[in-house]
């Protein structure tokens, strides 16, 4: 009987250990963190050199170097913009209900501009309750997708637009299209209490909306490449972009 009581007591203590750990500071999950970093590296390799060589092989030989530099420059530019203000606008929001404004459902704030407050010790919560990863790994993971999404536009502008025009369009698309939609596919990590309210649609609907917006952007670029259709391109962009609430 005494042995049974001792066994049950020891088992209860072992079961209570995770609860004690959860009461303290959150601890990063090594497996999730490793997979996030590996995924970020794979996406970066898909862009450089993957996407650059793929698009370079689709154009004439004399334009291959131009396409390679376009992809490289866009990747570097978006990475800088992501650190400067992109991450903050995409994954932060009003701290309290009183601070929430009219734009809170669509765009975040600048509380984490230039990664302010993001330290090696800060954690981001994952989809699993009680499972955390370092916030810096989350920043790098999301940055990789922001870079490759912007670099994909080169496929629609190769041999059609000037280099400066491509960079201008990519920056505008990144600020007004990508940042408002970035949290839709995985919002939750590293967000403020009153960050942008959850969009009332399923994950499938969100991906459909993103695909539709990419198609619209392509149509805008095609219309813009024809001198007599620039007004039509602006009309398409104005009439077809509708934030979902």
User: What is the helix content?
Assistant: 55-70%
Tell me the fraction of residues in β-strands, as a range. under 5%
The number of distinct β-strands equals 2
Radius of gyration: 22 Å
Give the terminus-to-terminus CA distance: 62 Å
CATH class: Mainly Alpha
Order of helices and strands: HHHEEHHHHH
Report the structural category: mainly alpha
Query: Rough shape?
Result: globular
Strand order of the largest sheet: 1-2
What is the mean pLDDT? 75
Biggest sheet layout: 2 strands, antiparallel
CATH architecture field: Orthogonal Bundle
CATH structural fold name: Ammonium transporter fold
CATH homologous superfamily title: Ammonium transporter AmtB like domains
Number of helices: 8
Domains (count): 1
**Uncertain residue ranges:** 7-22, 187-203, 231-245
Any chance you could write out the topology, listing elements then pairs?
Blueprint: H1 2-23, H2 30-56, H3 64-91, E1 123-125, E2 132-134, H4 135-151, H5 154-157, H6 163-181, H7 203-224, H8 230-240
Antiparallel strand pairs: 1-2
Descriptive key words:
single chain, 245 residues, mainly alpha, Ammonium transporter fold, two-stranded antiparallel sheet, disordered C terminus
């Amino acid at each position: 009987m005494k042995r049974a009581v001792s066994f049950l007591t020891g088992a209860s203590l072992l079961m209570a250990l995770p609860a004690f750990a959860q009461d303290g500071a959150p601890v990063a999950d090594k497996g999730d963190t490793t997979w996030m970093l590996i995924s970020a590296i794979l996406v970066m390799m898909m862009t450089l050199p993957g996407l650059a060589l793929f698009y370079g092989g689709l154009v004439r030989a004399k334009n291959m170097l131009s396409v390679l530099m376009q992809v490289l420059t866009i990747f570097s530019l978006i990475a800088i913009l992501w650190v400067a203000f992109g991450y903050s606008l995409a994954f932060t929001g009003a701290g309290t209900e009183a601070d929430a404004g009219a734009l809170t459902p669509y765009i975040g704030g600048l509380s984490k501009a230039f990664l302010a407050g993001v330290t090696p010790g800060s954690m981001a919560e994952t989809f699993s309750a009680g499972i955390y990863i370092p916030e810096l790994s989350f920043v790098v993971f999301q940055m990789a997708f922001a870079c490759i999404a912007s670099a994909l536009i080169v496929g629609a502008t190769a041999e059609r637009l000037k280099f400066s025009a491509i960079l201008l369009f990519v920056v505008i698309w990144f600020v007004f299209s990508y940042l408002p939609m970035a949290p839709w596919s995985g919002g939750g990590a590293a967000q403020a209490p009153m960050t942008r309210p959850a969009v009332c649609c399923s994950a499938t609907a969100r991906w459909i909306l993103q695909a539709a917006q990419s198609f619209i952007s392509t149509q805008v670029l095609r219309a813009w490449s024809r001198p007599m259709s620039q007004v039509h391109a602006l009309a398409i962009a104005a009439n077809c972009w509708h934030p979902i609430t």
